[in-house]
Design a protein that fits this description.
Blueprint (H helix, E strand, L loop, with lengths): L1 H21 L6 H21 L5 H24 L5 H20 L3
C-alpha cells in the first residue's frame, strides 16, 4: 500500500507543478487553489509512504516521478522542446527510479 501511495503522491506532484505554471505566479485563483490542494495531498501521501519506505528511496522515487512527469506534461501540453539530450536525461531518471525500487529493502 505504501508504494501505491508513493506513486500517487508523485502523480499529484506533477499535477501541482502544472497547476503552478498555469497560476501565472499565483495570480489566477483556480490554478492556485489546485496547486495548494495537490501539494498538501502529495506531501500527505509521501508522509504516509515514509512510514514503511526509507527516506532516501521514498524521496527519490517521489521527486523522480515528479520530474519525469513534469517533463512529459511540459512537452505534451505546453509545447516545450523535446530533443535527444532531454529524452536521454528523462530516461536516465526512469532507470534510476527502477534501480532504487529494485534496491529497496523496505
Amino acid at each position: 500500500m505504501a508504494w501505491i501511495a508513493l506513486v500517487v503522491a508523485g502523480l499529484f506532484e506533477v499535477v501541482w507543478a502544472y497547476a503552478m505554471k498555469q497560476s501565472q505566479g499565483f495570480s489566477r485563483l483556480l490554478p492556485s487553489l489546485v496547486t495548494v490542494v495537490m501539494m498538501v495531498a502529495s506531501f500527505g501521501l509521501l508522509s504516509y509512504a515514509m512510514r514503511s519506505i526509507s527516506l532516501g528511496t521514498a524521496y527519490t522515487v517521489w521527486t523522480g516521478i515528479g520530474a519525469v512527469g513534469a517533463f512529459v506534461v511540459g512537452v505534451v501540453m505546453l509545447g516545450e522542446q523535446l530533443n535527444v539530450m532531454r529524452f536521454c536525461a528523462a530516461l536516465l531518471i526512469i532507470c534510476g527510479l527502477l534501480l532504487m525500487k529494485l534496491a529497496a529493502v523496505d
